[in-house]
Amino acid sequence: AQSVAQPEDQVNVAEGNPLTVKCTYSVSGNPYLFWYVQYPNRGLQFLLKYITGDNLVKGSYGFEAEFNKSQTSFHLKKPSALVSDSALYFCAVRDRSASKIIFGSGTRLSIRP
Amino acid sequence: NAGVTQTPKFQVLKTGQSMTLQCAQDMNHEYMSWYRQDPGMGLRLIHYSVGAGITDQGEVPNGYNVSRSTTEDFPLRLLSAAPSQTSVYFCASSLQGPTNEKLFFGSGTQLSVL
Q1: What's the Cα-to-Cα distance from B104 to each of A47, A76, B34, B35, B38, rounded to whole Å?
Q2: Residue A84: which pLDDT band, with cuts at 50, 70 and 90?
Q3: Is the pLDDT of residue B33 over 70?
Q4: Among A30, A73, A97, B94, which residue carries the largest CB count within 10 Å?
Q5: SS3 label, residue B22
Q6: Looking at CA atoms only, how far is residue A48 from chain B in angstroms?
Q7: Which residues does chain B have within 8 Å of residue A94's beta carbon, measured at their own beta carbons?
Q8: Which of B27, B43, B44, B66 to mutate to test the interface with A (most CBs of A within 10 A)?
Q9: List of long-range contacts for B75-78, beta carbons under 8 Å, 24+ apart
């Protein structure tokens, strides 16, 4: 069975500081990994994905994520946070041998000016 | 392109009533899915489909039915609504595979069951 854990309900960061939102996963095979963002009263938007190749993937709005197979992690990062980055962030996983896509419980990112 | 269209945006039901949440996409995506979003629970997969005529259960399928008669449409049916089904429902679709895979989400349906 596949699963995703986001251990932090909320992450608070000062504007201009680096941010990290954590994600760990469990699949029986090789994963496809994703990050999505949800702004207030909106649907979810795709940020980035890891399929294969370079462990560091870059996505929208200056975000990047690092795939670590040994630690089964896919943490979301940004070198310098903006107040506009404040939103709800979701990590998701698909086992390559399956079709369904499973999401984590979400992490609320709050960037203070 | 309209993307993923969900209707209605809001719905209030009484316990025991039935209804269908509609979802349509115009991107020729083979994969379609329904999620519910509850505070502290994230997005939980209800049902999904990999093509017309093929559906499968997700993490929380009880109380919900789906069908996929066409590539474009993937309706979610609540046969006898319960207060525990009060939630925000999202439909999402995607191509699958290493090149183009990413979910496109509808704008959501806020459902209250009294």
Answers
A1: 11, 20, 12, 12, 19
A2: very high
A3: yes
A4: B94
A5: strand
A6: 9
A7: 96, 101
A8: B43
A9: B75/B20, B75/B21, B75/B22, B75/B23, B76/B20, B76/B21, B76/B23, B76/B34, B76/B46, B76/B47, B77/B18, B77/B19, B77/B20, B77/B21, B78/B13, B78/B18, B78/B19, B78/B20, B78/B21
CB contact under 8 A, A101 and B90: no
The torsion angles phi and psi of B46, rounded to 5 degrees, stand at -95, -65
Q: Using CA atoms, how far apart are residues B6 and B105, in angstroms rounded to an integer?
A: 9
Helices first, then strands: H and E counts in chain B = 0, 11
- What does the pLDDT read at residue A58? 96
Please say if the pLDDT value at position A51 is more than 70. Answer: yes
Contact assignment for B107 to A42 by CB distance below 8 Å:
yes
Residue type, B91: C
Chain B closest CA to A79's CA: distance in Å?
24
CB spacing of A106 vs B96 below 8 angstroms: no
Model pLDDT, residue B23? 98
What are the start-end ranges of the H helices in B1-114? Answer: none
Contact B6, B109 (CB under 8 A): yes
